[in-house]
Amino acid sequence: MNYEDYSEEELYVFMSFIPGFGCVSQHKLLEMCQGVRGAFLADGADIGGMTYREAREIPGFAKAFNAFVKGKEDETVMEKALEVLGRCRELGISVVTAGDEAYPRRFKGRLEMPIVLYTKGELRINEFDRAIGVIGARRCSREGRAAAIEISEAAGRSKVAVVSGMAKGVDSYANTGCIRTGGYTAAVLGSGPDICYPKENLPLYEAIIETGCIISEYPPGTEVRPYAFPARNRIIAALSDELYAIEVGEKSGSMTTVEWGKRYGVPVTMVG
Question: Is pTM, for the whole model, over 0.90?
Answer without folding.
Answer: yes
